[in-house]
Amino acid sequence: MRPLRLPWHQRLLLAVTLGALTGFSCHFRLFWQPDESIYDNLVGQWDYPADPRLAIVAIDDRSLQQLGQWPWPRSTHAQLIDRLQDAGVRRIALDLMFPEPDRKDSRQDAQLAAAIARSGNVILPVLASAGSDEAVPEELLPVPQIASVAAALAHTDIEIDGDGVARGIYLKAGMDSPHWPALGVALAGSPPPLPGLRGPANGEASPYQWRRDNYVRVHYAGPPGSFPQVSYIDVLEGRVPASLLHDRLVIVGMTASGMAPRLLTPTSREAWMSGSEYQANVASMLLTDRAIVPLSPLQQMLASVALVLLTTLAVTAPTSRRWLIACLLLPLPLLSSLVLLRGFHVWYAPVCALSAGLVLLLAWGLWQARYWRRQANHDPLTGLANRMRFEGILRLETDAARRSGKPLTLMLIDVDHFKAYNDTHGHHLGDQMLRQVAQAIGDIARRPRDVAARFGGDEFALILPDTPQEGALALVQQLITTVRHMSLPIGKGRTAHTSVTVGIYSVVPGIHDTASALYQAADAALYTAKEAGRDGYHAAMP
Fold first, then answer.
1. How many whole angstroms separate alpha carbon 63 and alpha carbon 155?
2. Dihedral angle sign, alpha carbons of residues 145, 150, 152, 158
3. What's the first-to-final CA gap in the chain, in angstroms?
4. Mean pLDDT of 353-365
5. Backbone angles phi, psi at 30, to 5 degrees
6. What angle is formed at CA 231 by the lines to CA 158 and CA 280, rounded to 5 degrees?
7. DSSP element (H, E) containing 18
8. DSSP 8-state code for residue 430
9. How far apart are CA 283 and CA 277, in angstroms?
């Protein structure tokens, strides 16, 4: 069976339409949830050895039990900083907020500030906060006495996606402009320029707005518990050997149940990760140069549209191997996403292109099936209905005429002396003659229910519902006259003529008038017309 072929302009129109729909879905992120599901599966087990310099000093349940109710005196944190400094810690990220002075004992602030100053390598957090949804956000910094002696200030803004999973982080953020590095960035000591997607320019926007920049996806070293962790109370009381802390990058943060922020990550949906370990993953990712940078929205759109255009043109290509090519191209968005992620640490969301490819294959398959179905019911040479379709329609119309009590006419048509013409002039000119005769027969079948068919060879038929014998005779006379005046090419500018012989049977079917009986009566009328000398017709009486 001949495959369906589309003209190039229809192929181009289909490709452009699907490309436009793909661009629309990319722009509005219609498939962000399936994209994130694919991302989670690709990175969920993609572990790597965490940077060995990182460690967490955890304010855990045991520390709370021994040191008492939170918050602890700031002098306690000062003692911890001194312990860490004595052990030779390289840098300390103290992930604890001190936005207000100690109202009970002003000496507490002085003691903490003095310890931070002695260390000279303590990083303190900054947080964006608003009292209510309508309130203007503000930066919560440590009290000036403490902030002024810190080695650096860093934001602790954790990015949570719409499904509650922490996949990425803005490496810079701040009020009016993104001037604070993330806590993990400051701990790693990463110099500019930082990786990540750049945010829009500030322009004329309000200065009272928290702005973020340099977005990356966090490449987690593994599930929660991938970094060495010691208890706050053990460090404070000297039970941790100094050798375990020497030259370390330490995060001091809350891990106690019910008090620490709990984060879901792609590495684990069953276990929660603390904010301190999240920042440790950010630092480790930067120290090992493993930040995952997503494509920009424009790059994402262009890549998806290009893949869809390529797949569409391949599927509709006029080649017998297009389905093989299409099956190879269909998974290309997913394969591209995997290669870019694992090979280049670039994230491409593939579902828009995958969805367009699946829609294309479904639509093309339905279209091809419809075309094949039509081909199965039509004669490939003339385009008329074939014998199988003729027999089915004749049965249906016979039943319909019996129920309605209206006449049904069947004509059987033979091309006169076709074998001699075919043998004399060749099959190619014989096929041209059959096409011309078929067109003349098809022109008579003007109404929606009229059916013109070719049995094969030089045999044709016409089914004319709601047509009495008088009407059928007028049509057959028109057909015979049309065929007589045809000019059939026989080569070298010469032409020939032909004629047709027709058998007609018109009847209002009764209970015993089956489709087979109608066919036999029309065939008998055709035989009578041939015996009469051809180039004419005979109408059998009911």
1. 26
2. negative
3. 41
4. 88
5. -70, -25
6. 30
7. helix 8-27
8. H
9. 10
- The per-residue pLDDT for range 285-342, each reduced to its tens digit, is 999 999 999 999 999 999 999 999 998 888 888 776 766 777 788 899 999 999 999 9
Q: Coil, strand, or helix at residue 334? A: helix
Kindly give, in sequence order, each residue whose CB lies less than 8 Å from that of residue 39, ignoring residues fewer than 6 positions away. Answer: 167, 217, 266, 341, 347, 349
Residue 133 pLDDT grade (very low, low, confident, very high; cuts 50, 70, 90): low
- Which DSSP letter does residue 445 get? -
Determine if the peptide bond prior to 101 is cis (ω within 30°).
no
Q: What are phi and psi of 4, to 5 degrees?
A: -70, 130
123 is written with which tokens? 């990083």
* Cα radius of gyration rounded to whole Å, the chain: 42
The residue count of the chain comes to: 542
Q: What is the 3-state secondary structure (H, E, C) of 202-220?
A: CCCCCCCCEEEEEEEECCC
Lowest mean pLDDT among 125-134, 136-145, 504-513, 530-539: 125-134
- Sheet of 408-415: strands edge to edge? 451-456, 459-465, 408-415, 500-507, 537-540
Quote the DSSP letter at residue 508.
Answer: -
**Strand 229-231 versus strand 54-59 pairing type:** parallel
The C-alpha angle with vertex 300 and arms to 294 and 306, in degrees rounded to 5, equals 145
Which sign does the torsion angle of CA 61, 62, 63, 65 carry?
A: positive
Tell me the CB-side half-sphere exposure of residue 244, using CA atoms within 13 A.
Answer: 14
Are 36 and 270 in contact, with CB atoms under 8 Å apart? no
Distance of CA 520 to the CA centre of its chain: 58
Smallest Cα–Cα separation from 288: which of 184, 213, 206? 184
- Which pTM value belongs to this model? 0.79
Q: What is the pLDDT of residues 192-245, one digit of tens each?
A: 999 999 876 554 556 778 899 999 999 999 999 999 999 999 999 999 999 999
Pick the CATH number of 387-540 from 3.30.70.260, 3.40.50.300, 3.30.70.270, 3.40.50.2300: 3.30.70.270
Segments making up each domain of the chain, as ranges? 8-40+295-376, 49-289, 387-540
Q: Report the distance separating Cα 410 and Cα 402, nearest Å.
A: 15
Q: In what order do the strands lie in the sheet with 180-181?
A: 180-181, 168-175, 210-217
The beta-carbon contacts of 394-399 under 8 Å, at least 24 apart in sequence, are 394/463, 394/515, 394/518, 394/519, 395/515, 397/449, 397/463, 397/465, 398/509, 398/513, 398/514, 398/515, 398/518
